[in-house]
Design goal:
Length: 504
């Protein structure tokens, strides 16, 4: 095969219209496993393929890109840096976006490799060209440039090069291109800042983060909303949260929530603020966040009762997120009547809202009702049971009715709620005392999609895995559930086939 690839390369360099030969080369390369391709390519040079990129024929250029993607992936980053650095640098300014993406991706591989990175870090022009790619109109090129440059943050020489050389000015110049490009630079800075306290220090010292924080109170509401999103990403890391707390961002956000009532445009940025505190609560402490910033919890309850679907959706997701932890459940329970009103609203939405809100309501309810076996204290079991009965006068029938409607996502959402209560003693007692419920669980004819079958299988698995299920449900049902589990989610009985054969 090595000989045939060599022959194909020789043929390509000798003809004016090489598309047919490029197709043959592509087919030959794809037939070789990537693991053995490296040996096959050893010692061969592919400058002829790079030279064919200088063409106005789009088909030819894109074939060359596909071939080079395969070839370069088989070569080590060090080999790329030593042999194809110049060609890849030229690719960064190529008029075709697929060539740019190829070049930026391969440079990303090099800067992530300690030995290859040295070659690139000594070349300001390459890195400057990659930074300029962030300003490209084509989003794929810009995204790949951000991804490749963020890899520089994993080493001190990379950080020094990006923030303590003339490349910092290149970044600031590119940033001035437009609002869209400015936010791409922020995206890069936030990604780099998230890696470590050291990388955050470089970004803070460069002035980018204080500039981002300044956007939070700008006059343009859409820009403000995007800035909140960026800051939320920065808060994903512990050192990022500490930095934001030192800068007073949490208090600033809390005050923005309080002031939202008098701002006619607040609906554009309020969801972002609520998501910020929701994520903060899960990563730190729901109780601490809700007690320190009561405006957040009050706003979530308010949004859940709001007629605006966008507000309701964010509230549902946030309530579900808070409900994933025991501490979050306890915080919600402490809210008393306020939370009861919200739970009733969630139940109404699950039964009769727009489909998307029904799905999000069911998902949030299942998260609120879930208790891991080790969390099942008497108090917490009483809490989830009381919440379940707040959903309806007949909550088992209500959820089962939702599961029989002809929408797979509603069917699965309802089954998720049954799965949540299936490990809890009170849930199992309800299941066995609800007429025909166990037949419903064991019935394979309902929910014919893969997701529905998987959801039912998960419910059965939760029942079988519970230490109390055999006693509560009785041996007859328990044995049938174990058989269902053993047969797997996609088992089909042969009853229909036998009946047909008899009829014939």
């Amino acid at each position: 095969m090595a000989a045939s690839i060599e022959g194909l390369l020789a043929e390509i360099s000798d003809i004016e219209d090489p598309i047919e030969e490029l197709q043959s080369l592509k087919t030959a390369l794809l037939s070789i496993p990537l693991s053995t391709l490296k040996d096959t390519l050893s010692g061969q040079r592919f400058n002829v393929i790079f030279s064919l990129l200088h063409s106005n024929e789009r088909e030819q250029v894109e074939l060359c890109v596909e071939i080079l993607e395969r070839i370069l992936l088989a070569l080590s980053p060090v080999s790329l840096a030593q042999n194809y650095r110049v060609e890849l640098q030229e690719g960064l300014t190529h008029p075709n976006e697929t060539v740019k993406v190829l070049a930026v991706t391969q440079i990303g591989r090099m800067v992530a490799h300690p030995d290859a990175a040295t070659e690139i870090l000594n070349n300001h022009d390459i890195l400057g060209a990659v930074i300029n790619c962030i300003g490209e109109e084509n989003m794929a090129v810009a995204k790949q440039a951000i991804k490749s440059l963020s890899k520089l943050s994993h080493s001190k020489p990379g950080l020094d090069m990006l923030f303590q050389s003339d490349l910092l000015k290149v970044m600031k110049d590119v940033m001035a291109t437009s609002d869209v490009v400015r936010y791409r630079i922020y995206e890069l800075v936030v990604e780099i800042s998230s890696v470590s306290p050291i990388s955050l220090g470089y970004c803070a010292k460069s002035g980018f983060i204080s500039q981002l924080i300044g956007e939070l109170t700008g006059g343009d509401v859409l820009i403000r909303a995007t800035a909140i999103e960026m800051v939320t990403t920065l808060a994903q890391s512990q050192h990022g949260r500490q930095y934001l707390a030192q800068q007073g961002i949490m208090d600033k956000f809390s005050n923005m929530i309080k002031g939202a009532e008098t701002d006619p445009f607040s609906s554009l940025y309020l969801p972002g603020l609520v998501k910020f505190f929701g994520n903060l609560a899960i990563m730190d402490s729901p109780q601490q966040v809700c007690e320190t910033y009561p405006a957040f919890q009050n706003k979530v309850f308010e949004m859940a009762l709001d007629p605006d679907a966008a507000m309701i959706g964010v509230a549902l997701d946030t309530l579900g997120l808070l409900g994933t932890t025991v501490e979050g459940k306890q915080v919600l329970q402490k809210a008393g009547e306020k939370f009861k009103a919200v739970l009733t609203r969630m139940s109404q939405l699950a039964c009769a809202g727009a489909t998307e809100l029904r799905v999000r309501s069911l998902d949030a309810i299942s998260q609120l009702l879930t208790l891991q076996p080790e969390e099942q204290t008497e108090d917490l079991l009483a809490l989830t049971e009381s919440w379940f009965h707040l959903l309806s006068n007949q909550p088992m029938d209500m959820i089962r009715n939702i599961s029989t409607q002809p929408f797979p996502e509603l069917h699965c959402g309802a089954l998720q709620i049954f799965t949540a209560i299936a490990t809890q003693l009170w849930g199992q007692k309800l299941m066995i005392s609800t007429p025909s419920f166990m037949e419903f669980v064991l019935d394979r004819s309902m929910g014919l999609t893969k997701d529905a079958k998987d959801a039912k299988f998960e419910l059965v698995g939760s029942l079988v895995g519970s230490s109390t299920a055999a006693d509560v449900l009785g041996s007859q049902y328990y044995i049938r559930l174990k058989t269902y589990l053993r047969e797997g989610p996609y088992y089909v009985t042969a009853v229909a086939t036998v009946a047909t054969e008899r009829a014939e």
